[in-house]
Design brief:
This protein is of the alpha+beta class. It is built from six helices and eleven strands. It has helices at residues 13-25, 29-34, 40-56, 114-132, 164-179, 192-197, and strands at residues 3-7, 58-59, 63-70, 76-83, 96-99, 102-105, 137-139, 147-155, 183-188, 201-209, 218-226. It has an eight-stranded mixed beta sheet, with helices on both faces. β10 and β11 (218-226) form a beta hairpin. α1 (13-25) crosses α3 (40-56). Mean pLDDT is 79; it is low at 88-104, 140-148 and 233-239.
Length: 239
């Protein structure tokens, strides 16, 4: 069975929201802790709303929503969002959407452990700032002006190991190379090997003590860089 990468379209919103939940609810410690007290119907409704906004609303951060299709069954087996380079308005720190009711920030579903999500956002922002200090790059979390990159890749658990995530990574790194920009990602342990295969190198490490937020253990993430063709020694200016 072959897999292909295509743009995600508005009719895909429900499939993408279910896929995201299946992928994160089984493996992502932040996601599981943040939404453990949110009812399943409420969480799935929030996921659907987020997917619909990504696919139908204008947004201050331009994004490319992608899907990987199994050509034999037509099933969506993996998805990703790549954020493209842009110039953020002064003072903007969070993505906003323009919908029928005007510009608004994304809402948390009732019961969300907001503290862990805010801590994760703080950690990701600190790691990105430490790594780049305002330089342009393809980046995994959108916090600073001109940043762009991969926010996340989700593959349905029943389709892992088929190369779907690699196809989505290839789509982005080829465009970063064409732009002459490096790529930066905050990689979880489960995705670390994938990024290494694409030439990413360790840059900065971060962690969160989950016990502070009602969880168990330590969440670890590694800031990794893949230097662009203009970054010959890893020290060039990403412009």
């Amino acid at each position: 069975m072959s897999l292909i990468v295509l743009p995600a379209l508005p009719p895909d919103a429900l499939s993408l929201s279910l896929l995201r939940h299946a992928a994160f609810a089984s493996s992502n410690a932040i996601y599981m802790l943040a939404y453990q007290d949110v009812s399943l119907p409420t969480l799935l409704a929030a996921e659907l709303e987020a997917s619909e906004r990504d696919l139908t609303s204008s947004r201050t951060v331009p994004i490319e929503c992608l899907k990987v299709i199994d050509t034999q069954t037509g099933e969506i087996v993996s998805t990703a969002k790549w954020h493209l380079p842009y110039n953020a308005p002064t003072g903007e720190t969070k993505p906003k959407y323009e919908g029928a009711d005007g510009v608004r920030e994304l809402a948390y579903p009732e019961g969300t452990n907001k503290a862990i999500l805010l801590e994760y956002e703080r950690l990701a922002g600190d790691m990105n700032s430490q790594a780049w200090k305002g330089k342009r790059c393809y980046l995994s979390h959108i916090h600073k002006t001109n940043d762009a990159g991969l926010t996340s890749v989700q593959t349905h658990p029943s389709h892992q190991g088929r190369g779907a995530a690699s196809l989505l990574m290839k789509w982005g790194v080829e465009r970063a190379d064409a732009d002459g920009l490096p790529c930066y990602v905050n990689a979880e342990e489960a995705a670390y090997a994938l990024y290494r295969r694409f030439g990413f190198q360790d840059l900065v490490e971060g962690e969160i003590d989950l016990a502070r937020f009602g969880g168990v253990g330590v969440y670890k993430t590694m800031g990794m860089v893949r230097w662009g063709p203009r970054e010959k020694d890893g020290r060039g200016s990403a412009v």
